[in-house]
């Protein structure tokens, strides 16, 4: 487990950028190990999104590893529920699940399924195996928090290909119409979906304009730039009039040059390829 002393209930905890980047690098190594144990999986997305997960779980979100069920914790909804290698690696690093559990990743009967489900407990706020559902779930959470007078924040991560689901835009209208500024949407804009390059499968045009047209505050960032991520999350917390959408451009395979830029949604990862990627990640320390 990655160690980091942080105030468990603090939101926006100060953290050295170098420390966060080191955490992200270790998360990447764990992603490769997890996917290598099955020989195939969601390694490319996990490597690309590691910086986002490090920032969210180690700085941004208010949570308590000693009490994962704490009612006033911030909520995180992984709408791209297949991206579990980075998700589980982060939960273990943050102390929300025991690191030993990772050895059961994707094994029959294990709660660490290839698509995150609530079988794992409240660390999985919602089962979103069908893409397009996460923002709707998060909208309900944010509306409930406001109704109860709670200052908990709701974070949800979508994939850019997932924006092709109609339910996303129904939820987008509702969240903006209800002015749920306690909801922050992060879009992992890696240009990859199951059938290949998003521009080839179903071009989305300029996504930022779409979200703005639906009434959202939009920020476009480099999703592999830790300072940019933290600044965007901090600005979102200061917004009181509308929800925020952070379009975070990420590089699939980030950190392992032999994998960078290779579009592989559910990619085969034989032992030799995994070993090379791990060696590259070790050299990046």
Defining traits:
Rossmann fold; single chain; 40% helix; 13% strand; disordered N terminus; alpha/beta; 9 strands; two-stranded antiparallel sheet; 285 residues; 5-stranded parallel β-sheet
Polypeptide structure, described:
The chain has 285 residues and is of the alpha/beta class. The chain has a single domain (17-283), classed as Thiamin diphosphate (ThDP)-binding fold, Pyr/PP domains (Rossmann fold), CATH 3.40.50.970. It contains nine helices and nine strands. The protein has helices spanning 17-38, 43-60, 84-93, 134-147, 166-177, 198-201, 207-213, 226-238, 271-283; strands spanning 40-41, 75-78, 154-159, 183-189, 192-193, 196-197, 217-222, 244-249, 267-268. The strands form three sheets. It has a five-stranded parallel β-sheet, with helices on both faces. Strand 3, helix 5 (166-177) and strand 4 (183-189) form a beta-alpha-beta unit. Mean pLDDT is 91; it is low at 1-7.
């Amino acid at each position: 487990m990655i160690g980091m002393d942080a105030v468990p209930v603090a939101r926006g905890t100060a953290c050295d950028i170098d420390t966060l980047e080191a955490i992200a690098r270790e998360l990447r190594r764990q992603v490769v190990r997890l996917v290598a144990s099955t020989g195939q999986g969601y390694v490319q997305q996990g490597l690309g999104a590691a910086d986002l997960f490090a920032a969210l779980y180690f700085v941004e979100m208010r949570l308590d590893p000693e009490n994962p069920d704490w009612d006033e914790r911030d909520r995180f909804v992984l709408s791209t529920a297949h991206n579990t290698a980075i998700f589980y690696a982060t939960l273990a690093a943050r102390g929300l699940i025991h690191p030993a559990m990772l050895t059961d990743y994707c094994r029959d009967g294990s709660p660490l399924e290839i698509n995150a489900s609530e079988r794992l407990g409240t660390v999985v706020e919602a089962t979103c195996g069908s893409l397009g559902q996460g923002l709707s779930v998060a909208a309900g959470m944010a509306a409930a928090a406001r109704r109860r007078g709670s200052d908990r924040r709701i974070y949800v991560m979508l994939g850019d290909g997932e924006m092709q689901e109609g339910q996303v835009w129904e939820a987008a209208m509702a969240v903006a119409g209800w002015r749920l500024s306690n909801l922050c949407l992060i879009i992992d804009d890696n240009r990859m979906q199951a059938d290949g390059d998003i521009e080839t499968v179903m071009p989305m045009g300029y996504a930022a304009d779409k979200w703005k047209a639906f009434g959202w505050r939009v920020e476009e960032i480099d999703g592999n730039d830790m300072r940019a991520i933290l600044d965007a999350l901090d600005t979102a917390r200061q917004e009181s009039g509308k929800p925020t959408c952070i379009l975070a451009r990420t590089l699939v395979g980030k950190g392992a040059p032999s994998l960078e830029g290779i579009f592989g949604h559910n990619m085969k990862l034989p032992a030799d390829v995994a070993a090379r990627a791990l060696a590259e990640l070790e050299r990046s320390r």
